[in-house]
Structure of ornithine aminotransferase:
Amino acid sequence: MQTVDVSSHEEHLSLAEQWVARNYNPLPVVIASAHGAWVVDVAGRRYLDALAGYSALNFGHLHPALVAAAQQQLGRLTLTSRAFHSDQLAPFCRDLAELAGKELVLPMNTGAEAVETAIKTARRWGYLVKGVPDGQARIIVMGGNFHGRTTTIVSFSDDPLAHDHYGPYTPGFDLVPYGDIAAIEAAITDDTVAVLLEPIQGEGGVVIPPAGFLRQVRELTTRRGILMVADEIQSGLGRTGTTFACDLEDVVPDIYILGKALGGGIVPVSAVVADADVLGVITPGSHGSTFGGNPLAAAIGRAVVSLLATGEYQERAARLGKVLQDGLESLVGRGVERVRVRGLWAGIDVDPALASGREICERLLVEGVLAKDTHGSTLRLAPPLVIEEGEVELLVDSLARTLR
Ligand SMILES: *Cc1c(COP(=O)(O)O)cnc(C)c1O
């Protein structure tokens, strides 16, 4: 039997108001349980989850294979630290490396930590392999980026909300407009070690770069002898209808940064995945994490990789993404200005005269759909990849009603 939380919806909201720091402004729904693409609130009302934990729940809530992997591991071993081997870590790293077609995996926990790890790897590679004078390395980053919340990462965010009043900031980053290959080329100096980008910008509003951009970045970084680093924390692991968003242009970056769905919506699991000529610059003691690669995380991460290895979820995302795209495109001119869709991932620019993104999300909540605005009047949809075709149609119909 499931335990039922007897506290009322209102009581929860007032508790949150009093005790939870205000770094988020959640929609007024209090979730108590969930399964697959659906969540249930404390009053027993069901909602279709069209956010999926910002893609951390690509396989839905409580996927049986992932819960089984977690439960099995919970009864055996949860933490060793990296001072010792566990019987879970190497198999996880092997399977993830094989999925990505790379040689090495460096496991961390949160996405931001994996981005930090990639930045440290790129800088160290710059000094030890490329021969950049120590302390001089520069990394080219994109306007509109979102890579997490650490002090170094927010240093190169151009979103004032994420960036302001957290200085002094970490130097060494050059910001160029997203999708502008000429600007990247112009920003490269002898000290440049890497280009860091999201193949599709999730927090930016599911912003898709011009066709061919990722290929151009690959060609340019190879030609100039610098690393291409793809933050696939939100775009990767099936979301776009391919294992990685880079696959949409048949591009293989030097470094993949993964997170979110890698933990199966159960625990935070992130990783940097690259070949030995890059990731090999990290030597014992030069980087680490107490919890990174712990047995519970590794067991769950490995189960996630085995779901992706079948190709079933990528295929679902591609097929149902087409249904989502057709549905959303039918709303253009009817309250929607523009839509950007890749797989089961959509950015929707609502006519600002009609409503803000937040207002649309509040109306969707009344319709029984959970979604999240990004900026202004832009809405992001990222339902779990286990969603059914009829539920995609329900999602589009619900959105259509909120636009009337
Ligand atoms: C969510 C996200 C991160 C940060 O991940 P956390 O686990 O929240 O630290 C980094 N990059 C991208 C592209 C993301 O979407």
Observations:
- The first helix runs from residue 9 to 19.
- The mean pLDDT is 97.
- The first strand starts at residue 31 and ends at 35.
